Amino acid sequence: MKPWSDRVIAVLFLVWMGHWMPATSQAKSPYTPADDSVVVARLRPGVVDPAERQFRSARSALMADPGNLNLALEVARQAIRRGRADADPRMLGVAQAALGPWWSESVPPIEVLVLRATIRQSLHDFAAAIADLDAAVERDPRHASAWVTKAVVHVVRGEREEARKAASHVVMLSDPLTASVVVALVARLEGRSAKAIPQLTRSLERAAASGRSREDLRETAVWAGTVLAEMLADEKQGTAAEGQFRKALELAPRDPYLLGAFADFLLDHGRAPEVVSLLEDYRRVDGLLLRFVEAQRAVRKGSEASALAELHGRMEAARERGDRVHLREEARFHLRLTGDLARARRLAEENWEVQKEPADARLLVETKPRNP
Description:
mainly alpha; Serine Threonine Protein Phosphatase 5, Tetratricopeptide repeat; 20 helices; globular
């Protein structure tokens, strides 16, 4: 069967779903430590790999020629990609700095507009991100990545109608695997995971058999595999879900979102010791440290004291510098680790004003006051 068939099936699925053709957090000023003793970041030791050398070389070249648009776009894209891979928010600052000469323009080059939206999305400034994406697709209605990002933002915001509309464009403009992932995200938002699972499974299999290199497929395949695993877990297909998680981890063993999603799956199935082993080397990422502490407590209460103190310090530091990107994690921290249910509820409600994914809905349910 040709890849185009995936696109046709995705179109039909959108038709079946019923459509065809935060208050947002505010952008913050750069954080400046109060004194030299404040830890800004923890660097990961190790040798400099070829990708890192290439990135450094591109940044150096851009410093010498800051008005070079093509070079600025390349540095920004690499920085965003590295920030996602390492859960390193500093890379968003690097990306924004690369786009600095065009950042504040009301009508910047369209690729700057799309990357600016991507950065704003990552900072949970969803209203500004959507405004940029709307402007981008108005100027170029066939800009596939703009439609993909727009669909994802609407899914995160729980905006079903807008997500379906954007997904219909993705189906026609993007590659079949990306289109299948976006359609699956919309289906999951609407509680229709069971209907989307077979199509996404087939799309992953066809992509793997397409002859494209493993490296070329890696980013999209990891995204698709993670989404598929989460939907299988939603549908109580635990064995299949675990299989997909492990396949994705073979491609991206350090991916922070994937590690967190698999850790949640294991915690939900009472497999805390495996979470401790899984996340032992990834505690520099706050969200993964949170899950590591939860697992430690479940394995042996009291063993988590040191890591819990570190996590609490990070949470307080983030709050002091005005970081509201991790409201979901902060609410979960108080719900599951400090026992401050009232605070957890306030944070869960504040988070719900910003994003409305399944994990956010679950937090609202779990923090709901119990009847006496």
